[in-house]
Amino acid sequence: MRVNVEVNGEQRTADDVWPGESLLYVLRERLGLPGAKNACEQGECGSCTVYLDGTPVCACLVAAGQVEGRSVRTVEGLGSAEELDPVQDAFVRTGAVQCGFCTPGLVVAAHDLVHRKPDASDAEIREALAGNLCRCTGYEKILDAVRMAAVAVKEQRS
Amino acid sequence: MDFLRPSTLDEALAMKAEFPDAVPIAGGTDVMVELNFDVRRPPALLDLGLVTELSGWTRENGHVRLGATVPYTRIVTELGDVLPGLAMAARTVGSPQIRNRGTVGGNLGSASPAGDAHPPLVAVGADIEVASTRGSRTVPAREFFTAPKKSALEPDELIVAIQVPEAAGPQQFAKVGTRNAMVIAVCSFAVTLDVAGKGVGTGIGSAGPTPLRALEAERFAAAELPWGSGEPLQENIVRAFGELVGAAARPIDDVRGTAAYRRHALSVLARRTLGWAWRSVPQEVAK
Hints:
The complex is a heterodimer. By secondary structure, chain A is an alpha+beta fold. In chain A, 36% of the residues lie in helices and 13% in strands. Chain A has five helices and five strands. Chain A has a five-stranded mixed sheet with strand order 2-1-5-3-4, with helices on both faces. In chain A, strand 3 and strand 4 form a beta hairpin. The relative contact order of chain A is 0.16. Chain B has two domains: 164 residues, 2-Layer Sandwich (Uridine Diphospho-n-acetylenolpyruvylglucosamine Reductase, domain 3), CATH 3.30.465.10; 116 residues, CO dehydrogenase flavoprotein, C-terminal domain (Enolase-like, domain 1). In chain B, 37% of the residues lie in helices and 23% in strands. Chain B is built from twelve helices and 13 strands. In chain B, the strands form four sheets. Chain B has a five-stranded antiparallel sheet with strand order 4-5-10-6-7. A three-stranded parallel sheet of chain B has the order 1-3-2, covered by helices on one side. In chain B, strands 11-12-13 form a three-stranded antiparallel sheet. In chain B, a hairpin with a 4-residue loop joins strand 12 and strand 13. The model of chain B has no long low-confidence stretch (mean pLDDT 96). At the A-B interface, strand 4 of A face helix 2, strand 3 and helix 5 of B.
């Protein structure tokens, strides 16, 4: 099966896709985008969080064929090594990155939150990130990062 | 495996008739887990993502007709005022990512006794609209579930919509799990009050082979609540209601909890939710 999908603003085509495989597999193994991580494959950990038509989803729970003609944005599409997205920058500056495995998913989930609700309370931040697990348990630094990124987004807007 | 992608409901029904073993997929939050873990290898997936007839909701004749593929996030943001019980349950589903994809149609299709949407649908007496090329019919939510992960759905049928009566009074939902997010219910409970009709509805989740109704508890509360008085609930009434709910459960011991714990927890949930619901009965109606 062939799947045509816009990824990070670029039209991409994946061939020989097995109809039961996930968007995550297509991104990592067929399109060379290893940013979204493969951990639980059941939507529990959030490490594979990507935007699908602007909505954060677990890429492991989206069937490849369901993204035909749609738009996906992965962590690779948020910023570049030269110019980090404010959320990525905040994660680096607050030390919210330990082993780094959960980071891409958390960055996408946090990116969605700070753009959707830059004034989110701590309870709202916790709720928004409830689907992303950090096995290093560095959650306090992650909360710091989200607060810092929210300030940056507000400054960008004003 | 084939990937079927109908763009209309008629086309989807024709495909389901031709390939009854095709597994419908919308949010994928249950189906993809089974595929990822090799638990299931269906001959085909039937993607309902393009079928716009399933993806919206309308208000008609005192109920909301909720399309089968409306995600939980939209129920929370768009229907919290008319379907408060279902919206409360929707808020407890998984995580934001899961609520962005998961649907009530999928919850019903999986027919897990632990499905979060089921207790409020049972409590309020919702109807499930199902269709095939043979025609369409409605099945009461209270009769939809037949056994663990089994429903009244025929192999050639698809769940089209859920007709949920608009709230006629306060509704509550509560769920026990090891944390707030990402839990499969150990047990859950929904209660609805029909203030004008002096009626009480109940739904028990994850404490029986199917979602259950606590019929005796409903009758007891309908008869004993001080309707129209504006008075607080008496402790003995709340306690008896909780005991009747616990007695209506048919739980088993499993990895998430014991039968005895579930019965106990349900009676606590029933007491609390009835209390919360009663306290929010509008005072102008109550007096």
